[in-house]
Amino acid sequence: MTFTAKDLPSEITNSEEVRQALGTIRTSFIRMRQQMSEVIVGQQRVIDLVLVAILADGHVLLEGPPGLGKTLLVRTLGDVLALSNSRIQCTADLMPADIVGTTIVDQEEGSSKRRFRFREGPVFHQLLLVDEINRATPKTQSAMLEAMQERSVSVGGTTRMLPEPFFVLATQNPIEQEGTYPLPEAQLDRFIFKIDVELSNRKEMNEILERTTAKLESHVSTATDGSFILAAQHVLKQVVIAPHIQDFVTRLILATHPDSEHAPNWIARDVIVGASPRGAQAIIRAAKVAAVIDGRFAVSLRDIKAVAVPALQHRIVRSFEAQTANRLAIDVIEELVREVPILDKGVFHG
Prior knowledge:
The N and C termini lie far apart (50 Å). This protein has two domains: 1-96 and 124-238, 3-Layer(aba) Sandwich (Rossmann fold); 239-350, Orthogonal Bundle (Helicase, Ruva Protein, domain 3). The chain has 14 helices and 13 strands. The longest helix is centred in the first third of the chain and has 23 residues, at 15-37. With 350 residues, it is an alpha/beta fold. The protein has a five-stranded parallel beta sheet. The protein has a two-stranded antiparallel sheet with strand order 3-4.
């Protein structure tokens, strides 16, 4: 079964229609997850977070050593979601035109007339894999920044809209640092999640070997299409979040700033720059999806905690002391989630 926009109401007029629509989205998520698992061995947390990010209309940064299936994940995702997809291998000599496209001169056949024609780059696909994004120069990264934020590109004084839906899944290698350009904070902030891709365990490794060396072919079926994803994103905005849960997210973000009254004393030691308001938006958008997947129609604290680390770990800048002590951003976020108090309903401070 393939879910399309026709499976969701074009207009929702009452709460019962909302519940039915959210139930359909949950069923579609389960099918997407099942189809992805037909090809991707293990990495269930990565698959779930990527699917959550897509339903929350966000880009994803995947970090992990080579050979863990990041490229295969994106290719499989394109097949399962019936999205056009493309891949960019970032290198130091990659130019912005290699991503967004360029204007060329065409000569009409049988005529001496010439005309300008725009040749689209790989960014004009619904699902774009940007491999080793930190190997691209800052000039090229700035072209990606416009595409990710504005969902458009500017070429030759003309702004061209990108297809909808549009998602960037970028990868970077945490080990090799030679010849890389660390992503600026402004660009990192455009990713809804940063997901750490970890090495498979013994059982998963053996299954990977069986699938790839014993001629065992895995096939996936289309689970949804772009029209359904766009419709689902619209419906998910109607998921309810209580004021005191939203306030917890607000205070969590403020607690990452050393100069905030909401920050614990140790933050000034570990953090230089805290998370932006986009961090709060990312948490709430993702938490709404997480709630629906769990069969609920309102965001709970459990949903916030489930997405806080991938939504915030790339948005804070650690101090030199924290880095030398090998205190990871994940450690900082997890400790904040434990320490930020949960206020009674309707109680707000500052």
